[in-house]
Design a protein that fits this description.
The structure is a homodimer. Chain A has a single domain, classed as Survival protein SurE-like phosphatase/nucleotidase (Stationary-phase Survival Protein Sure Homolog, Chain: A, 3-Layer(aba) Sandwich), CATH 3.40.1210.10. In chain A, strands 3-4-2-1-5-6-7-11-8 form a nine-stranded mixed β-sheet, sandwiched between helices. By secondary structure, chain A is α/β, with parallel strands linked by helices. Chain A is built from seven helices and eleven strands. In chain A, 26% of the residues lie in helices and 27% in strands. Chain A is globular and about 60 Å long. The interface between A and B is large, with 78 and 78 residues.
Chain lengths: 262, 262
C-alpha cells in the first residue's frame, strides 16, 4: 500500500527580547496559529538593548515552561541570539522554516535595529539562512494593544513563507504604529532612517555618596527622506526594512582603495 | 599682547571589550602615545561577545583607575557601547577626534564584527560621527605578542586623523594576523567575508543532575572571494574593512518593492 505523504507543516521558531512571559510574544504566537508547527524559545528575563550579544563566559540553561496551549515553549537563560542558536541545535535539531521575533514592546526602526535584541535574534537566524522577521509595536507599555500588529504579523509571515526564495538571507524589520488597525494605511518597504539618540546621562548619588549614571536619551531623526521607516511610521504605515549582516561600507571601501597610501 | 594659539592636540578616546586591565588596551594606548591627548574609558570586566548591547535596566558606575602614566583612565561597569556614550557625555564633555577600540585578544573579521563588543564600540562612535577604528589581533592569548599590531595601529590612526573627511561616519575594522611584523605583507582594504560559526552546544549535567549548555563552534568560511578579510588575513595581510551601521539590504528592498502584494 502506497503511503500518502502528508504535506509537512512549516516549522516556526518564535523568540523575543522582552522575555518568554511578555504579552508581545503571546500576541505573536496567537497571530501565526495554524500557519505551522510553532516552537517558542525565549529569554527567561527581559533582554532589551542586548543587541547581538552572545553568552560565552558561562553556560546556558533551558527549561520547558507553560505557554499557549499546544505550543511547546522554552525559557532560556541567555540572550535573544543565544535562544536562536540553542533552539536550532538542542530543541529543533534542525533549522526552522522561519524564525520570528517579537512582538517587541517599543519601536525598533531606524538605529534601534542595532541595539535591539529582537532584531538581533532575527538577524542571527538570517546568518544561518533561516528566513526571519522581527516585529515591533510603537508602544512600550506592557498593556499595549497588539490587535493591529497581530493582523500585519500574520500577513508578513504568510508572505515570507511563500517568498522565501527572494533572498537566501532574508531578514525583515517590521514596525507597526500604535494606532487602531483601521487607521493603518498599509505596508511600506523602506530603508533605515538615519536617526539616533541624543544621550544625556542622568547623574545621581547613592546613599553612600557615590555617583551613578542612568542612560537617558531623546530619539532624533536627522533624515528627511520619504523612503525611510521613520517617515512611514509617522504617516501611519507599517514599515518593512529588509536588513543584512554584511556591514561592509562599499562606497567607503572604494574611496579607501584610492586614498590609502601607507 | 597677542596670544599665540597652540595647535590643539586631537583627543583620542580608547576603549575595548576585554576590560580596562587587558594587555591589548595597554598595547593600543602605547601604540598611539604622542598622537594626541589620550583618555581611556573601558569596561571593568571582560565584555567579549557583548555586541551592541547597552545597559538600560540599571545604572552605570565610572571609576578613575591607574593606567599608563600620564593617561587618564576610567573603568566603567557597562558594556563597550556604554563606555563610548558615557565617555562623551560625562568624561570628555565633547566628542573626541577619534575613538579607537582594542586591541582585541582574538579575531573580529568576517561575521565576528556583529558579535564583537570591540567593533560595536567603534560603530557606536561612528553613529555619532566620531571617526573610529576597532583593532584585533588573531591571538586569543593574554600573553599575545602585540608588536606588529601596535605598528599597524599607529599607522592606521595617523591615516584616519589625516583623512577624517573621507566619510562622515568613518569606521574601520582592522585585524592583524598573529605573525612576526616582518612577515606581514602590508594593509589590504577588504569586504567582510561570508563566514560563520557552525555551532554545537556542549551539553553537560551539573552536580544536581540538571542540564546546562556551553556555546562552542567552529569558524567556517564559505566565501571563496579574494577581496575578503578572511582571505587577506590568511595571506598575511592586515585586513581593513570599512563598516557601516545602515543595515538596509538595498537589493532585497528593490525585490520586495516588486514582489510585495499584500
Amino acid at each position: 500500500m502506497a503511503k500518502t505523504k502528508q504535506k509537512e507543516l512549516p516549522v516556526i521558531l518564535i523568540t523575543n527580547d522582552d522575555g518568554v512571559s511578555a504579552p508581545g510574544i503571546k500576541a505573536l504566537t496567537e497571530a501565526v496559529l495554524g500557519l505551522g508547527k510553532i516552537i517558542v524559545v525565549a529569554p527567561d528575563k527581559p533582554q532589551s538593548g542586548m543587541g547581538h550579544a552572545i553568552t560565552i563566559g558561562h553556560p546556558l540553561r533551558l527549561s520547558k515552561v507553560n505557554g499557549i496551549e499546544g505550543v511547546e515553549t522554552y525559557s532560556c537563560s541567555g540572550t535573544p541570539v543565544d535562544c536562536v542558536k540553542l533552539a536550532v541545535d538542542k530543541v529543533l535539531h534542525r533549522k526552522p522554516d522561519i524564525c520570528i521575533s517579537g512582538i517587541n514592546h517599543g519601536a525598533n526602526h531606524s538605529i534601534n535595529v542595532i541595539y535591539s535584541g529582537t532584531m538581533s535574534a532575527a538577524l542571527e537566524a538570517s546568518i544561518e539562512a533561516i528566513p526571519s522577521v522581527g516585529f515591533s509595536l510603537l508602544d512600550y507599555s506592557l498593556e499595549a494593544d497588539f490587535t493591529a500588529a497581530k493582523i500585519y504579523a500574520r500577513q508578513v509571515v504568510e508572505f515570507v513563507l511563500k517568498n522565501k526564495n527572494l533572498e537566501k538571507h532574508l531578514c525583515l524589520n517590521v514596525n507597526v504604529p500604535a494606532i487602531d488597525a483601521k487607521l493603518i494605511k498599509g505596508i511600506k518597504v523602506c530603508k533605515q532612517a538615519y536617526a539616533k539618540y541624543e544621550e544625556k546621562f542622568d547623574e545621581r548619588k547613592d546613599p553612600h555618596g557615590r555617583r551613578y549614571y542612568w542612560l537617558t536619551g531623546e530619539f532624533m531623526n536627522f533624515d528627511k527622506n520619504k523612503d525611510t521607516d521613520d517617515w512611514a511610521l509617522k504617516h501611519n504605515y507599517v514599515s518593512v526594512v529588509p536588513v543584512q549582516f554584511d556591514l561592509t561600507h562599499y562606497e567607503l571601501k572604494k574611496k579607501l582603495e584610492k586614498t590609502w597610501k601607507i
